[in-house]
Amino acid sequence: MALHFELVTPERLVRSEDVYMVVVPGSEGDFGVLEGHMAAMSTIRSDAELAIYASAGAAPEMLKITGGFAEVNEKGLTVLAEAAG
Q1: Measured between alpha carbons, how far is 22 from 62 in angstroms, rounded to an integer?
Q2: Which fold has domain 3-84?
Q3: Where in the chain are the domains?
Q4: Disulfide engineering: 18 pairs with which of 2, 9, 47, 49, CB 3.0-4.6 Å?
């Protein structure tokens, strides 16, 4: 199975896809989210990057984001960023 990942900014839905794993730059430190991760919320460091892994063993796609929040729940991972790109 896969982790459902959404990246949202105030302007638009940037990404909505199933991935293997996302490493989130939390304000308390980076954390990896796989499918089945326990529920969690975290603020995101300013001017950081998400590491998005499409499949196990794949090289990560690095995506610059600015601030915001990350929420993990039974539906997957949602990142609400101030800006992305």
Answers
A1: 10
A2: ATP Synthase; domain 1 (2.60.15)
A3: 3-84
A4: 2
